[in-house]
Amino acid sequence: MKRIACYAAVTAVSLFPCLPAFAQDYSGRTLVVGTWGGDIERLLKEHVAGPLEAKTGAKVEFLLGGSGDRLSKMVAERNNPTMDVTFQNIYEAPNALKEGLVVAPDAALVPAAADVWAGMNDGCYAMSLVGLGIAYSKAVFPEAPEWADLWNPELKGKMAYAPYPSSEGDGMLAVAARIAGVDESNPDAAFAKLAELGAPMLTYNSLDEVLTLMDAGEIAAAPMISGYVISNLENYEGIGFVFPKDPGPVLVRDMVCQVANSPEPELAQMFIDLALGVDTQTAYAQQVNFGPTNSKVVLSDEEAARVINTPEEVDSLLQLDWEYVITQRSDWTDRWNKQILGQ
In sequence order, what are the residues at sequence separation of 6 or more whose Cβ sits closer than 8 angstroms to the Cβ of residue 161? Predict the structure, then answer.
């Protein structure tokens, strides 16, 4: 408790917690962080790595790539890890903890974890909140649709989906299951209900591809993850995006993890603490429309409207049984190709 109280006092004037480790000199040591490139790498360099290097004298080295590559690396290096921090998807984090690949979240070691929305630190620390909502053509939907509106028979065959397996596909199956009155543990009902929408007009590999057709009214709607599509809306006047209410948006969140038995555990904890802090979380919301997991972040009304940010929105999120979903993906991929794509 003393450590947390000290941190709270210091954050009023500094980005850094008063962890005992910060009194040490880490010059000549390197923290290795696995993450995604692009805006995520840029934000982490500006708000986490830079301040950490300036304060400790350590260097931060980024390994860029997909989360699957990082998971494979942790498995291959289980007895001699070279990576200290890794960013994973929510469906990977709980199992990584179960397999002993990562360290369980602990607010005594990472004080900012205490400010994360309750229940979000599952396997690793919750880094950002995004939701699976509906991107829709305003020519087809003059008003923002609910999930059930997609089952209008006149819209059959006018949906677009991301390739499966994907978070978007798993989320849409979960929504279809709930429209049918069950949940994702009943895949027969989920696939039968989703098949009622017909084969999609497009399985898209690029956001520009699907948004251009949707802007023209050729595609009625698509289940999409909020941050990326909202960042592109200003380029397409004919497209809207909504977080439905019944059921709510499907929660898809990125996680930041401390690799088990890594070479630099204290630097890893300091890095994660800065990543979960108000400064970094605010930048994520303002610049890439990823909702903050830190409940103390305060956004303007305009910024808040673009992200999942309020207690009510957090409570409305539909959280899937990802451990079960992942075990089903091989079978569901076959069923998706046959029952949804008609191949």
Answer: 168, 169, 172, 200, 202, 203, 204, 222, 223, 340
The rounded average pLDDT for each run of 10 residues, N- to C-terminus, in the chain (343 residues) is: 35 43 81 95 98 97 94 96 96 92 98 94 94 96 98 98 92 97 96 98 93 97 91 93 92 94 98 98 95 95 88 82 88 97 92
Rounded-to-integer distance, Cα 63 and Cα 61, Å: 7
Q: Where is 252: in which H helix or E strand?
A: strand 250-258
Residues in contact with 315: Cβ distance below 8 Å, sequence separation at least 6, in sequence order: none
Non-local (6+) Cβ contacts of 207 within 8 A are: 228, 229, 232
Both tokens of 168, joined, read 């978007």
Q: How far apart are CA 193 and CA 147, in angstroms?
A: 12
What is the sign, positive or negative, of the torsion defined by CA atoms of 343, 334, 94, 319? positive
Q: Is 245 exposed, middle or buried (0-12, 13-18, 19+ CB in 10 A)?
A: exposed
Q: Provide the angle, in degrees to the nearest 10, between the axes of the packed helices 322-335 and 167-179.
A: 90
Cβ proximity of 115 and 297 under 8 Å: no
| SS3 at position 20 | helix
Q: Which of 152, 140, 160, 111 is nearest to 274 (CA)?
A: 111
